[in-house]
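Recap for those who missed Tuesday's class. We walked through two folding examples back to back. For each one, the amino acid string is listed first and its predicted structure tokens come directly after. Nothing is annotated here on purpose, so try labeling regions yourself before you check the end of the notes.
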Amino acid sequence: MPRTIIPKRAKLYVAAVISAAVLALVLSTQLDPQLEVGAPPLGPVLTFLFVGLFLELAEHHLAVSATGSIAFIIFLAAALVFGPTWGAAITAASFIGAHLLNRRPLLKTGFNVSQYTLSVLLGSGIYLGLRGEVPPSSLDAALLPFGAMVVTFFAVNSLAVSGVVALSEGRAFREVWRRNTWGLVAYDVVASSIALAIAVLYSRFGAFAVAGVVGPVLFLRHIYMVNLQLQSTNHEMLDLMVKSIEARDPYTSGHSQRVAALGRLLARELGLGFGDIDRIATAALLHDVGKMYEEFAPLLRKESQLSPEEYQLMRSHPIRSAELVGTISTLRGYVERAVRHHHEHYDGTGYPDGLARTDIPIAARIIMVADTVDAMTSHRPYRRALPYDRVTSELSKYAGQQFDPVVVRAFHSSSQIRLLVANNQSDSGITTEPAATPVVRLA
């Protein structure tokens, strides 16, 4: 298995998080009023520790290069019951045990232990600062300080994880944070309330309270995992459908996935919102889905140039693609329009509706550039792939005619796009050479 190379700046970031966690723990041992009471009973501490370990072992994957678990419920409850320092110790011990059992790399273990410990310490520090009781005697008195504790905990946790992923993979921090965090906010708020219930029940019934809520906690995890698996299955089905279409034409294998990746980067470079970026990537993935109809099969297999009649038939594929996309209720509207108009030209000479300038949806204008770039950087029956410099020259030449000049400028200014195109060609074993024929044309 190839070794993952971690950038130096990501390592420095991890070192900073570890240092912050150590400093926070040292301060906690000096300021935590619960330490003056003495050590808590060993039995309850071990109960929290082993339940936390169990839940941490049952982690799940997030959207962008990270994992999550519902063990945070137990860690928050431990801090409410035993105070910041013991809560942090239980958190660290559970994480270390889980990472050792899963044989995680040392650097990853150090980071995850530190960022979770730091999140628990800062969150419970805020709780104590707002005069929250340890352990809380009633829900009413603890509600406000606990709310502040939860906000602090998730802010530190999500920012720390998103930061290291963004630095490690060269992604935009905002996109990583949004994709890994935003969709889980409601789930995390509901789940974290169980921590307060555990702490209140503990003050009345002891460690049995922890065992009593494990069932509801696991039920919450099950609901979340079912939802996550449904989303993953839907995306995999779309990928499978696109791959089955592209299997008809060896020259376009992987084309739609590459266009989706380029479209996502262009949308991000243009500063579009996260929802629009996701919808544009989906539209780009499905932009040629109409070619699955049988009338297009002979055209896709033909190695010579198309006849005028065949070219007219091929020009109908955006309409057929949009009609097919529109049969899925969640894709109607934005995605459907982007697919229909991805062959419109900025000067109004495109098809199927002859739209011009800003009448063309921004998603379609982005896909037009991404689609053309991938066509130019891939081998086709009528020419070999073009070098990157030739591609940028062609885009500049036809900006304002075929392409939106704003999207072309975004393409030129993105170093990530240049790297993605180079990687795509390298992965496909493509060598480039100049072509004598006109290249800025797509079916």
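Example two. Treat it independently of the first, because the proteins are unrelated.
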Amino acid sequence: MVLGRSRAWVGLLVLGACHGPSPADPAAAGPVRTLRGHLSPDSADRPNILLVIADDLGVDQASCYASPVASRAPQPHLDALCARGLVFTDAWANPYCSPTRAGILTGRNSGRTGVGEPTGVGMVAPGLSRRELTLPRALDRSDSGYTHGAFGKWHLADADNGALRHPNIAGFDHFAGGIEGHVEDYFSWSRVVDGVETTSTTYATSATVDDAVDWIREQEDPWFAWVAFHAGHWPRHLPPAELHSYGELTGDEEDLEARPEVYYQAMVEAMDTEMGRLFEEIGPARMRRTVVIFVGDNGTEGTVNQGAFPEGRAKGTLYQGGLRVPLVVAGPGVQARGRQVDAPVHTQDLFSTVLELAGVDVAEATRGRPIDAVSLAPYLADPEAPDQRDFVLSEVFGGGSTARGAAGQAIRDRDLKLIRWLDGTEALYDVEDDPLEEDDLLDGVLSAWEHAAWETLADHLDHHPIDPEFDDEDTGDALR
């Protein structure tokens, strides 16, 4: 099939130079143990695992990825993390928050979880099934010795899966944060603690760190903390002055409407500032025993991408602007500081990665439950390790809050990327030579290898359709 596509120019996005670790970086110095050492049966030898999720932060807005945008938020703590960690340059998420979070929690594609678009209490699109095997459940199932808590944005609950209690039903010992996909006001919002809802007037970004710090202080090592910021998701606003450097902003409606991208940057800088406070509160000694994973949940929202991607190709789409996110792993077991991995990986791979870091036998922990995730642990030991998967797949459903025209699937190997929309139309790009997706190969004549690769990618989509008859006891083959 041949499809015409708009041909707007976007800047090439590749890994840029990272700044060296900040003197305040509590984990910038000290011994680093090998990954092999973390697979000891003794939980005392296993690292703490801190997963930090940024909302609506694509590679174009992450500070240690090169970008053609005119300006970005200062992010010194992310820069320091990149400098002492491993940066994945071709990490895909799903186009929206809920499907990505479901994939990280379960290691499964949207076609398996049934979460393929934004969900919420009272919304049409379903949340994550109560029957899913989640990360905290897998840790408990394996007697890993880990305690676990989730903080900040949840966005996987619906009216049928437990609503306010869903994070706890999904397996977390403790939850404190927002259940829905966004807060109506960062300074007055619905805060849920283990199923009990109150109104918080603490700035939401700061409250996420406050809650995480309070819980971590009470834990013995090892622990797993899911820290999911609401920032930089709308509503746009002026964060507290001590958290950002954009002193010229007024915060009034006229200024917010005139400069949404600058307010977004202030929100991102505030998040980075608070992430630095989180690291500092954990403390240098404990940070040296902690693996930090930083990831975005989907691409940057279209109104603030500053032209990094053509109009209509940002968050919520199957183009690179909707799928490519920052992914950084730092801490014990990461052998190549400041290096990069250019192999295609997926955010759902964090499921198997966290379990392996925790010393869990992934196959045993997930027995009887097919997963699509592949552990990134080999890259932590060797950034030049062979590719761990043949394909990555991302999906967005239609029928809930997603326009049917945007729904479909994207799949890629090392070179080619196939997008198939719900109406059956397709586009094919060589994302190695054409990372901006300017040249749809289906508009011309395919070479022999392009045609063979296209058929292989298409065959995989044929066997994993966008609208399967959903069954959360699915036992089909995993796609890797």
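Answers for example two:
The first strand starts at residue 48 and ends at 54.
The CA atoms of residues 356 and 362 lie 7 Å apart.
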